[in-house]
Design brief:
The chain is α/β, with parallel strands linked by helices. It contains 14 helices and 17 strands. It folds into two domains: about 300 residues, Aminopeptidase (3-Layer(aba) Sandwich), CATH 3.40.630; about 150 residues, Glucose Oxidase, domain 1. The strands form two sheets. It has a nine-stranded mixed beta sheet, with helices on both faces. It has an eight-stranded mixed beta sheet with strand order 3-2-10-5-6-7-9-4. Strand 12, helix 8 and strand 13 form a beta-alpha-beta unit. The protein is elongated. Bound molecules: zinc ion.
Amino acid sequence: MKRIHLLAGFFTIQTLLVSAQTTQSLVENTVTYKGVQAKIEFFASDEMAGRDTPSDEQRIAAKYLATRMKEWGVSKAPGMEAYLQEVKFKNITPPEEGSLIAKDSSYILGQDILLLDGAASNLEAKVVFLDYGNEEDFEKANLKNKIVVVRLGAKGEPNVRKAFGVGREKRARAEEKGALALIELYSSTQISWKIIKRYLGGSSMSLDTGEGDESGIPHLWLDDSGGGGAEFFKSLKKAKLSIDGATIDRFTAPNVIGFVEGENPELKDEIVIYSAHYDHIGIGKPDAKGDSIYNGTRDNCIGTITVLEAAHNIVNHPLDRSALFIFFTGEEKGLLGSKWYVDHPVMPLKDVVMCFNSDNAGYNDTTVTTIVGLNRTTASQAFITAGNTYGLETIPDQMPEQNLFDRSDQVSFAKKGIPGVMFTMGITAFDDEILKYYHQAGDSPESVDFDYLYRFTKTYVHACRLVGNMPETPFWTEGDKYYEVGEGLYKKSQ
Ligand SMILES: [Zn+2]
């Protein structure tokens, strides 16, 4: 008996060793040093002009990813007619000219007043002051053809971020009651008017969700940091508002998506997403050398190529689970490509068991790989094993203060309940070595260590294989902030 036991143990260890070796040889079957280097040198080349959203060069980059996947036999996602998923964006530039004239005070647009939303207007109308403008305040008021003035946000709630949402509700109420404009008195001490002015004064890009309200009544914030606004507007009879409308550009840019079906009948209905954002920030201010092309080699050509190499590897050697490869656009504009994706998924989100995202700010330690969220899911061993295979130690995020988890695309999935991690190069601090390249023109292919990147890429592909084949379905570790929303997502499906 003892002997048999020993033998059984021996076989288990043998099997594990063989399977580790097999995974490594399968990885090295398709991932080559020259292949990684050539792809990076092309994808981050000056000709790609920094892959800004939107740009012709980004479209060429998308086409390149789709073409390689097609060439290797990676399928389009079921039900998709193309590898590209067009994401709808809008870019809003605030108007330059406008003013509000009340008694002998005049408020100038861009200085004393800011337009949050709404069409061009030129009107003179009676003014009604509605305190905080809560539901009750609005209910009893006659607002037909009037300018409504209210205090910012909700009573007892100093959070400016929340005031944006509350303000939109007020505007809807005002519009419903036939008002011509809504003005909120900005007196917050949480964020100064100066900062708000800078934030709202420039153009901003967002998803075009079809909830366009640029054509509605103007919604303005008025600088009341000196106080006294409420008293003034309470006693005011009339005001004159003339304002140009915002300029809105609408456009699309693509997410790129490919699919490889799993081979295990028990597990192939589970999908693992392997993702990376392929956009960067385009052309900008020249650096000391006169270079104005922000190549985005680290951020995030390298992440893109790790996922592309995973697609190449997995289509040649499919996994137990199905694999969905997604290259996101618009990450640098506020994770917009992944936000769009989770609201327009090409396969049901409840079938996705993990988002294994690959994104980078830079690296300052070539002996390690970093997994942001390493201990937050039950898949951590897969990442550690993969790193060990290529002589890289796997470390968790060293800079919790940077909130890296919330700054890349996996968070869009986490918010829906899907376990996510971010695979990233060895980074131990946001130090000078990182800042030298992070969002700088010098982040070019000549500046990277290809020996390290080769091992790093193999580690990613190896980990992809382990996650796609792990017998247990990965999930959040207990107590994680997304544990419950995860339970909700997957329970709904049963
Ligand atoms: Zn970036």
